[in-house]
Amino acid sequence: MNALETPVGGRTAPAHRPPLRTGRRAQHLGRVLFVAPAALYMLAFYGYPLVKNLVMGFQEYTTRTFFTGEAPWVGLANYEQVMGSPIFGKSLVNTLLFTAGSILGQFTIGLALAVFFRRTFPGAGMLRSLLLLPWLIPLIVSGAVWKWILDQDNGALNRVLRATPLTDARPGWLTSTTLALAAVVMVNIWIGIPFNATILYGGLQDIPDELYEAAALDGATGWRAFRHITWPLLRPVVNVVLVLGVVYTLKVLDIILGLTKGGPANATQTLATQAYQLSFVEFDFGQGAATGNLLIVVSLLFALLYLRLSRQRAEG
Amino acid sequence: MPTPRKRVRVRQVLAGACAVPLALSACGGGSDAPAGGSSGGAAVTALRVLDYYANEPDNTVVQQTVEACGTQIGVKIEREAVPGDKLIAKVLQQSSSKTLPDVLMLDNPDLQQIAASGALAPLDDFGLKADGYQQGVVDASTYEGKLYGLQPVTNTIALIYNKDILAEAGVSVPTTWEELEAASKQLTKGDRYGVAFSAINTFEGTWQFLPFMWSNGGEEKDIATQQTADALQLWVDLVKDGSASKSVVTWSQADVNDQFKAGKAAMMVNGPWQFPVLDSVAGLNYDVVPIPVPKAGMTSVAPLGGETWTVPQTGDKARQAAAAKVVACLNSDANQLALAKARQTVPTKTSLLAEFVAQNPKMKGFTDAVQTARSRTGQLGPDWPKAATKIYTAMQAAMTSGEAPLSALQQAQAG
Fold first, then answer.
1. Chain B environment of A151 (Cβ under 8 Å)
2. Nearest-angstrom CA–CA distance, B227 and B212
3. Cross-strand bridge partners of residue B51
4. What is the pLDDT of residues B105-158, one digit of tens each?
5. Cβ contact (<8 Å) for B10 and A86?
6. Range B33-38 contact pairs with CB under 8 angstroms and sequence separation of 24 or more
7. Which ipTM was obtained for this model?
8. Domain spans, chain B
9. B47-155+306-370 in CATH: which number?
């Protein structure tokens, strides 16, 4: 304590003051010191890049900038360029379709699996851990493997399809502009299922069995039990899963680059791949940052919508 | 190495990019030479060299050549090789932290963009000239009339064909577009396609399309022309009549090579850097000819690949002068021939070509193609990446969504 009671800022504490005050100040300092590492960390690794990215969106930031340090202020020019380009509308629609499709698939299948694994049966534990497989494989590897599977001429999927009596066609999963987005969504669903299933399964574990027993006595089983017990009690977990899911999915980049690089003919181009293309292929970091900022705005809109919905629910 | 950057490892690039702003802030402001520049002062004892020959056998070949040059000049060489897709991120990082190497290798289409940033020293300052070099190679290393790099060897793409398959089918090697279409169709059988090429939506796809576009008189400054549209129509037709796989729009050049290697394509558009892989396949007999031209008698114009060696603006005149000597040494006649032989490339000094082909008959097809080849940045300079993006955008639109080539090109040119 002695060290903490030393007066701060060079002012000498009057001798007659009660020790309480000094103690409180020391306590205050202590609190600040506890918060400081986290605050500094947040500022350096989250605040700074965010602000830097926002500023870069208004600058002509090119390869030249790195050598000269000059990044002329160009106002909204980057945004005009980015939003005026013919790919922008398509990227925006694709981003929304990709996110909506992925979340819908991941969540429904994840929830179904979570409910399924709530029962105990022989081998349930092993099957449940197998479910985590997509999560354990690096995304680059998943992308490469899925690219082989979905190959039009020799891919496993088309070989299986041909072996069935259903069809003789060989769909161009990654080469057709109409199928590519669906194929990419499908792979992303596969990747997202473990996350959804695991978190939802955790939520299900917290629902006491007695509720189901009581409901069963009243004749509510199966679907009715799900509708009136599982769903309402799982609601908070569902909200978390959906919000995190949307934020993760909006910015998905690696899997699209691995599978299609945004093609064919920009059919799977999203805001994230577009930002990447501008910054790291064309080295127009200003326009890339502008696109990235628009993506942040989309995420933010969704987050606000979510906050509003949950507040309304709390009030109603 | 193929000129288009290798498959991008996203995480690595992003990681590098995150480091960039931090490095920038750490060194904000000071754009002058670093203090302690030993201009005219202490003797130069060691030079830092950066390139992207990270894979074998190139790594060893280049290491030995650069070290030999160091010994000749009397300096120690500290060489660093990074993967191809990380080089530019590294160079940008180094230029913002004023830690550029003394000798820097750049992929030739990147030179003008880096020179435009002011990071490179004109080689004329050190008395280096590119007299007797293939003109396209000089164009790529020149920015605003000044020479910034010297490129010892170059490469390009050509038509590589499976001799056995062609002989068996009784098909002669195509030299015109018409012959290419006919031959491809004839060679397509079962799960084997007649021809394979890369029409991927990256600079690699553009690079593969250029010989068709240029040989027909198309130009990158305005791609919405009938000449370029006709070239694109050829690719569309090859896919449409089944002579080439629909998957060409997703294939990189390495994928194309895999198809050819496995006998799933009788001919392919590819470069000499694939030779080591092809030679490792037992019983694969192949040969190389320039890419077919629109009509008999026309000249095949292919794009020039390869890397150029530069002297960055490090602010230390003595070190820069020594670095220029290393660049000159790497470009000596003997080193051009040795590097070309070891790395399946072609010397850039035209006077060496006859001797080179006599010693390396397998390189004849590529050497012929190089003579008339053009550089990608010769016409547009630092604006090339934008044009290259437009070209593959139009290419993909025409090949996958049934858009007419000319209107696809018009849309891409306008966008």
1. 247
2. 10
3. B81
4. 999 999 999 999 999 999 999 999 999 999 999 999 999 999 999 999 999 999
5. no
6. B33/B314, B33/B315, B33/B316, B34/B98, B34/B314, B34/B315, B34/B316, B37/B315, B37/B316, B37/B317, B38/B316, B38/B318, B38/B319
7. 0.80
8. 47-155+306-370, 158-302+380-414
9. 3.40.190.10
